[in-house]
Structure formats: structure tokens, C-alpha cells
Amino acid sequence: MGHIGDRMTEETASEKMEEEEIVIDVDEPEPTIEDLPGVGPATAEKLREAGFEDLLAIAVMSPPELSEQAELGEAVSAKIIAGAKKLANIGGFVSGAALLDKRKRVKKLTSGASSLDELLGGGFETQSIVEVFGEFGSGKTQIGHQLAVNSLLSESQGGLDGEIVYIDTEDTFRPERIAQMAEAVGIDPEEALDRIHVARAYNSAHQILLVDEIKRMAKNIDVKLIIVDSLTSHFRAEYIGRGMLATRQQKLNRHMKELKQVADVQNAIVLVTNQVMSKPDAMWGDPTRAIGGHIVAHASTFRLYLRKSKGGRRIARLIDSPNLPEGEAVFTVTSEGLRD
Ligand code: GTP
Ligand code: MG
After folding, report:
1. 179-192 pLDDT tens trace
2. How many Å apart are CA 304 and CA 33, to the nearest integer?
3. 2-93: CATH topology
4. Which pTM value belongs to this model?
5. What is the pLDDT of residues 80-132, one digit of tens each?
6. Which residue's CA lies nearest to atom 16 of ligand 1?
7. CATH of the structural domain 103-339, one choice from 3.90.550.10, 3.40.50.2300, 3.40.190.10, 3.40.50.300
8. Does 337 contact ligand 1 (Cβ within 6 A)?
9. How many CA atoms lie within 13 A of 316 on its CB side?
């Protein structure tokens, strides 16, 4: 997680932007290639077809290079590159004080199991992406359901008092289960279901588009938790074979960046689930690996590896956290939900 590429959010940064006559509201979505001077739909399509999705990718090109690769005139290319340099926020340094201020807004959500909360330093943090990965039946979807219910609780009860968006890619969202868990924490099941907005994503393109829809929804409701269950299943099914790997990873990377942006703007949690694929040739360590590899791992702020244990217990292991020690927590999934 580097901050250098982050959006400029503090005073000196916005002063610098004004100097260049481009003012970016931090609540606005990140600029896209459509925001470049002289770029209409046709040019945008040419750029995309040539693989230029990112402003930064354009900003580092020379006019002849861009002209050749995107089949545009050189003068137009020069203008586009100049625009991209302004918009792409190259070297957007942010003061430590501004970052501390942003960190102060972080809220923590209880999972219902104190061991798991402790492992995470007091609960699931807003402004973060939490990747929960593990084999089938390890409890990923159950964690999603439980966090959805707990987010409805007031902050004094360990909740976020917000609304929830649930992107369901495997058709495993169960309203009955939500009702059961809600009742167990004293929330009216109907009210709970009213505040949890579920969308079934039919393929990866649809899944990506749903993030835009979340941004729109967030203008009217206070989205505090976004669940993508599962993050990778469509990508895995659609992009098969080595030749597709780079494209798949690029799309996943972009998807996660957009999710992270919503998490930051909304001061919300993004929970993504991920399966593990078995890697029988592994010589040491765990013989399973999360799908999406480094891209997903790197884009996630916290990673929890779940595994099944004796007597219906589950073990969660915290992996590569920025500021917490690695460790494990044991919890159970009961009819009431996640418990110690
Ligand atoms: P995949 O999506 O298949 O990869 O698995 P997952 O990791 O999402 O597993 P999931 O969260 O669906 O966990 C399923 C397990 O949760 C079941 O095997 C049960 O042990 C437990 N579980 C699910 N619902 C209930 C319930 O209503 N009561 C109880 N006691 N346990 C439940
Ligand atoms: Mg599941």
C-alpha cells in the first residue's frame, strides 16, 4: 500500500492543483480517460483498444509512441499526454498529518467473535479491503452474512449504523440466514433485510459495473460495508489459460482499485472472499494458494486465511498485515452466527 499514488487530499495538494487550473473534488470518482482534453468517445475507444485504461499509462508516453500505438495524430497525442500528466496525479505526496487525520476516521466493526476482533486489532477496519480466503465450507460466506448484520448495529454496539451492499456472484446469499443472525443480535429481521442491498453479478463485467452502481447508491444511502462474495469466481471461470492471465489480473487489479476508492470515500469496509486452489506441487508451506495471486493479495489491506478445524471450529490466520502481528483466532459458526 503506497500513498504516493493516492489521490491528493490535503491543502498543499489542492493548491498545486488550482495553479494548474484543475480542481479535483475528493468525493468525485477518479478521473478517467474521458476527462482528458480533446478525448471524445471515439478517441477514448481507440485508447482503450490500445490498452490505455489508466491515465498514468498515458502520462508516461511520448507523443510519437502514443500516436503509433493508439493510431492517433501526433498533435492530438501530445495534447492528451499533457492532459494526462495533469490529471494522473504523478507524485501526489500527502503529509503525514493528513494521513493521520484520515486514519482517525477509521471505525471498527465487530465480527461477533472477540478472538477474531482481537486478531484484527479490535475489529474489521473501514477504509480497508479485507480478503477472506479459504477452501469451500471454511466460512467465508458466513463471515459476509455476519458482518452485514453487525454493520447495522449502532457504533456503541460495535456496528457501523450503515447500509450494506452485497455483490453475490455464486448465488449463496440467504435472506433467511440474515434474519436468523439479526434476531440473535436483537435487530428486527425485516429492517435488517431492508438495509442490505443485494445484487447478483452474472459475470465479471457485470460485477465491475456494479461498483459504479454502488457509487451512485452511495449518494443517497450511507453505504458502510461492501461485500463481494466471491471476488474471483467469475474471473476464474472466464479467463482461462495462461494467455488470458495478464488480462484477468489487470481487470482484477482495476476492480479492486475501484473498490478501495469507494472504501476510502465512504469510510466503509470492503470484504472480498476468495477461494484457494490446491497446489499439490508445493514443496513447503501451505499446499493451497489464493486465486488472483499477488494482485489480489497486494490490493487487500488485511488478509484472513480460514481453515476448518475439529468440532466445527474455524481458524482464521491474519497474513501480511501493515501494522498488526501475524496470528490466529479460533471461532465457531453457530445457528446464531459467528461466536467465540
Ligand atoms: P464456499 O463458498 O463454498 O467456498 O464456502 P464458504 O467458505 O463460503 O463457506 P460457508 O461460509 O458457506 O460455510 C458453510 C459452513 O457454515 C457450513 O458447513 C456450516 O458449518 C456453517 N453454517 C452455515 N449455515 C449455518 C447455520 O445456519 N447454522 C450453523 N450452525 N452453521 C451454519
Ligand atoms: Mg461461500
Report:
1. 999 999 999 999 99
2. 35
3. DNA polymerase; domain 1 (1.10.150)
4. 0.76
5. 999 998 887 665 677 888 888 888 999 999 999 999 999 999 999 999 999 99
6. 139
7. 3.40.50.300
8. no
9. 28
